[in-house]
Design brief:
Structural class: mainly alpha
CATH class: Mainly Alpha
Helix content: 55-70%
Number of strands: 2
Strand content: 5-15%
Shape: globular
Largest sheet: 2 strands, antiparallel
Number of domains: 1
Number of helices: 4
Radius of gyration: 16 Å
CATH architecture: Orthogonal Bundle
CATH topology: Arc Repressor Mutant, subunit A
Length: 98
């Protein structure tokens, strides 16, 4: 019986990286997104490359005129928006205990 080795899930995706990625999709360029989240272009690009490495998929089509999401990128941004909304809700709920 042959067993296929499954990839271990990496739960260390930084919420900030999800926010950056969602901002890239919203703004249309990495440059505009980097500015919107107060990062240098180099830092934003490095974080996006690391996010692609973490997910194991190319998330963006990059060109001189901007970016567009790949199919994987469209799936990620849907999840990212839900995760970020839930994190915001968590912070609001926890604020009453602080």
């Amino acid at each position: 019986m042959t067993r296929t080795r499954r990839r271990t899930v990496d739960y260390r995706i930084d919420p900030f990286d999800l926010h950056l990625f969602a901002t890239v999709i919203e703004q249309g360029t990495i440059t505009a997104a980097a500015s919107a989240v107060n990062l240098s272009l180099a830092a934003a690009s490095a974080r996006l490359r690391a996010l692609e490495d973490c997910t194991g998929a190319r998330l963006l089509n990059r060109s001189k005129t901007g970016t567009s999401p790949t199919d994987a990128g469209r799936a990620l941004v849907r999840h990212a928006n839900r995760v970020l909304a839930e994190l915001e809700s968590l912070h609001v709920d926890m604020a009453s205990f602080g």
